[in-house]
Amino acid sequence: MAFALLLGFLFLDNFNGNKYAFLIIVLLTAMLPDIDHPQSKLGRKFWMISKPFNFLFGHRKLFHSLLIPVVLSFVVWWFFNDWWKPIFLGYFSHILIDGFTLDGINFIYPIKQLRLQGFIETGKKQETVLFWFFVALDVIILFNLFT
User: Fold this and answer.
1) Are 122 and 101 spatial neighbours (Cβ–Cβ below 8 Å)?
2) What are the tens digits of pLDDT across the range 83-107?
3) Which residues, in sequence order, are bridge partners of residue 116?
């Protein structure tokens, strides 16, 4: 979510609606890709959705591809114009940052392989350092927004 907030701050000027709502939607949709994992924060809360999705698709497959944010953003664009932007940005931020982990992601699942795989091990020191780096950037940007 720290990375999603950073991207939200960076793209804030490209949105014409309420800026606070934009950032909140970015943060909320950044959690959506993990709905397919019953042990994620969202998965534990919505286990009745998470468990079937995990059974049918597994983790880091369909919900960690570009298909879901593109379709979701198109539907939102169709009905609500500019509001697709924070939805796509939040969702995309999650799958992009997951692409830097050892598990990686497949951007175009289920069509073919276009894999992004990095060097960061989830839950280890590298991830913690990266998290605090993004938090520091978020604080700096937030400070500059209000001064």
Assistant:
1) yes
2) 999 999 999 999 999 999 998 888 8
3) 105
Domain holding 58, by residue range, is 2-145
The HSE-up count of residue 115 (CA atoms within 13 Å, CB side) is: 9
Both tokens assigned to 50 = 């998470």
Rounded CA gap, 122 and 132, in Å?
14
Question: Residue length, the chain?
Answer: 147
Q: What is the pLDDT of residue 115?
A: 83
d(CA 34, CA 40): 6
3-58 residue pLDDT tens: 999 999 999 999 988 999 999 999 999 999 998 888 888 878 888 888 888 888 87
51 within 8 A of 114, measured Cβ to Cβ: no
112 phi, psi to nearest 5 deg = -150, -165
**SS3 category, 17:** coil
Residue 66's nearest CA partner among 114, 11, 9, 15 is: 114
Task: Give the residues across from 120 on adjacent strands.
Answer: 101
H or E element in which residue 135 lies: helix 125-145
Count up the domains in the chain and report the number: 1
